[in-house]
Design a protein that fits this description.
It is globular and about 65 Å long. Among the domains are: 101-188, Arc Repressor Mutant, subunit A, CATH 1.10.10; 282-379, no CATH class. It has a four-stranded antiparallel sheet with strand order 13-14-15-16, with helices on one face. Strands 2-5-4 form a three-stranded antiparallel sheet. A three-stranded antiparallel sheet has the order 10-12-11, covered by helices on one side. It is an alpha+beta fold. The chain has helices spanning 4-14, 25-36, 50-56, 64-72, 97-103, 110-127, 150-160, 185-188, 197-212, 231-243, 266-274, 295-302, 362-379; strands at residues 23-24, 38-40, 59-60, 77-82, 84-89, 140-141, 148-149, 165-170, 173-177, 214-215, 247-250, 259-262, 282-284, 323-328, 331-341, 346-354.
Length: 380
């Protein structure tokens, strides 16, 4: 059994959020993605997009241009659906073949889309990457969230099927191109190493555990997007992962259910049990950060309740529209709302909320404001 403090330290060390920053520059971005398998993407940009916020809190010298290069020039990262829309390793492309195969069999407005698929592919073959604005297909068709243009529907469909990839972005506008122009042949043509649905589920669960650090085996938001992971299948997956020695079980004081972590992180667990120095680290944590994928777990271990209130009606919000948790040492001490003023090209601190009065000290206020300056310089 470990203490809650040790559990917090383990999670934060795994996430690169405890002690000095171990990830550096462009190489550090890739190393962090390799460690957690995926970083969730969200296009909303109030003080930086979610994936940028995740990376700036871990990578010393983070620059948005470095991430862009890794995605669209170096061809080592890729935009793909994992935990919702994410940034993943391009080498994992073969493992997602089951998603692409399923996409061939399900699509809204299938008849309208199928009618223009080859025309769109011919245009891209001849002219290179395109955006939806480049296609003269403005008619509206039924789509998942709301009616959209046929151009967007066909590009999204071909992307879901793996017949196109995102070659680059201009802000949030995506350009689509043929996969063979951006993915190495040996990766593109490789077969999925998982031969059964059970093997695929095991792979997905293992990567989610690694993406957070440790998780319960019960239903969790951290497992969202893993199709077919119902109670029976989840029990079978954890039995297999334990039997194969890929995960280990640990109990935490005052927690009813055991947690599971990767066997490859055993050395990290032993380090925490042996004792680690206190961290003087202060970071602002992204709303969809890997660390807080399971918010019930965060409440259980950190005593911190967090709700992303961006979709909450204004009058019903307890805090603000786009609020970032403030992590200090191994505790969440408050929340901060920062907003970019695009006209004046600066950031404004709209408000700070402290979890406890004891945290609202002159020294902590100074530290938060100093960190906010560093944060703002990095996010511009």
């Amino acid at each position: 059994m470990i203490t809650k403090k040790q559990a917090r330290q383990f999670l934060l060390l795994k996430q690169g959020l405890y002690g000095s920053k171990k990830f550096q520059g462009k190489t550090g971005i890739l190393e962090f993605v390799q460690q957690v398998a995926c970083v969730q993407f969200d296009p909303i940009d109030v003080c930086g997009k979610n994936h940028e916020l995740v990376l700036q809190s871990r990578v010393e010298g983070f620059e948005k241009s470095h991430l862009y290069e890794l995605l669209y020039e170096d061809n080592v990262l890729i935009d793909w659906f994992d935990k919702n829309m994410s940034i993943c390793l391009r080498e994992d492309w073969p493992y997602f073949s089951y998603q692409r195969e399923r996409a061939h069999n399900r699509s809204r407005s299938k008849e309208e889309v199928d009618r223009v698929v080859e025309e769109v592919l011919d245009i891209i073959r001849a002219n290179g990457a395109v955006t939806s604005k480049d296609l003269a297909m403005k008619e509206k068709v039924d789509w998942y969230w709301a009616p959209t243009s046929l151009a967007r529907a066909v590009l999204d469909t071909l992307y879901d099927q793996g017949r196109l990839v995102i070659s680059h972005k201009q802000n949030t506008r995506k350009s689509y191109d043929l996969p063979e122009r951006h993915i190495q042949k040996e990766v593109l043509e490789a077969e999925n190493p998982n031969k059964t649905c059970h093997e695929q589920l095991c792979w997905k669960v293992l990567r989610r555990i690694g993406g957070v650090g440790m998780l319960h085996a019960n239903n969790s938001y951290a497992y969202i997007g893993i199709d077919g992971l119902k109670a029976k299948e989840r029990a079978a997956v954890f039995a297999s992962l334990l039997g194969d020695g890929k995960i280990r079980e640990v109990t935490v004081e005052d927690c009813k259910l055991p947690f599971y972590y990767l066997s490859s992180d055993q050395e990290l667990m032993e380090q925490v049990i042996a004792g680690v120095e206190e961290s003087a680290r202060l970071e602002f944590i992204a709303p969809l950060d890997n660390l807080i994928w399971d918010r019930k777990q965060i409440e259980e271990l950190f005593g911190f309740s967090y709700k992303w209130e961006i979709y909450t009606p204004t009058m019903e919000r307890k805090f603000g529209y786009y609020v970032l948790p403030i992590l200090m040492n191994d505790r969440f001490v408050g929340r901060i709302e920062i907003k970019r003023d695009r006209k004046k090209k600066k950031f404004d601190i709209l408000d700070i909320w402290w979890e406890e009065k004891a945290y609202n000290t002159k020294e902590n206020r100074k530290r938060v404001k100093e960190h906010a300056k560093l944060f703002m310089s990095m996010m511009y």
